Amino acid sequence: MPLIAPSNYEPPTRLWNGHLQTIIPSLFRKVEVSYVRERIETPDDDFLDLDWAFSNDELGMIRAAGRNNELADAEHHSSLIILSHGLEGSSTSQYLAGMVRHLTHNGFDCLAWHYRSCSGELNRQERFYHIGETSDLHYVTQYTISKGYQTIYLMGFSAGGNVTLKYIGEQGKSINPAIKKAVVFSVPLDLMGSARRLEQWDSLVYNYRFSRTLKRKVMQKAALMPSAFPTEAVLKSRSIREFDNVFTAPLNGFRDVTDYYTRSSSLQFIPSIAIPTLIVNAKNDPFLSPECFPGELARELPNVWMEFPGEGGHCGFTSNKGGLNGTSWSEERALAFLTESNSL
């Protein structure tokens, strides 16, 4: 499908660069969403926490309780959007909560699922999550299909966008027919390129923030499983890439960080995607390298649209009309793609 150019996104004039467009909404945007939390057990004796938000509260509570027989036939065909958050994010991250608010107001049920250890409680097993792990997303999609949903859309942000693209690419033409479309924003399609971008001087603040959060979580887990983690090496790591080399890669069976990033990057899976998919990456995103803007690839693929606005930052896309706490451009863009038959 064609590269969508030019994009119609224009940021507020006061947010005049990618860093402001990233940081200001992250720190100051306030979005309130009422979730119903559900915990499901995984086959490996762990758990995933799911936060549900419904377009119809009464029907939503019935569905959350698994009482599908109480739903009218037509309601069995209501649509669900499964949202995957970014690195160390959650259902309350402003970019995700804002999307849930907008989509539920427009008739969609939403499920914001948490990666292992991201729901406010450490998971049971040694392993956490990583940016190429798709088995949990598959488990969640199968679970929602068992709830009675027959029309499902997938959405991901940043790391969650990589997981989403990798998953639907792995599934290819064998993807469950209930999964109709996907939309992703601010995706590090090439993980090594993004890791290097985050080590440039103007993005070090993001690198430091994530590294600190990840190391703190490992130390909390190490207190429960003292022999399981290389705490000294973790504490000495100075970047996300170093952390992934000494912790994430070996914990998950990769040789090293290069092997981990190479095998987990979603870019290589995009040609196998068999459902309509929109990828939106801002050119001034301080997390993304040039490899994350494969415009020529977009022109070759039948099911993938790519849109690269000049502005937007990382998971920003604040509207220049509704203010910081209003509906963002990305929320409007996602709704348009999901609801328009031509997907443009």
Automatic annotation (TrEMBL):
Keywords, comma-separated and alphabetical: Hydrolase, Serine esterase
Signal peptide extent: none
Keyword Repeat tagged: no
PROSITE patterns assigned to the protein according to its UniProt record, in alphabetical order: UPF0017
Catalytic residues identified in the record: S158, D285, H314
Taxonomy, superkingdom: Bacteria
InterPro entries in the record: AB_hydrolase_1, AB_hydrolase_4_CS, AB_hydrolase_4_sf, AB_hydrolase_fold, ABHD4
UniProt-recorded Gene Ontology molecular function terms: monoacylglycerol lipase activity; short-chain carboxylesterase activity
Domain AB hydrolase-1: 80-317
Protein family: Belongs to the AB hydrolase superfamily. AB hydrolase 4 family.
Protein name (Swiss-Prot/TrEMBL): AB hydrolase-1 domain-containing protein
Origin organism lineage: Bacteria, Pseudomonadati, Bacteroidota, Cytophagia, Cytophagales
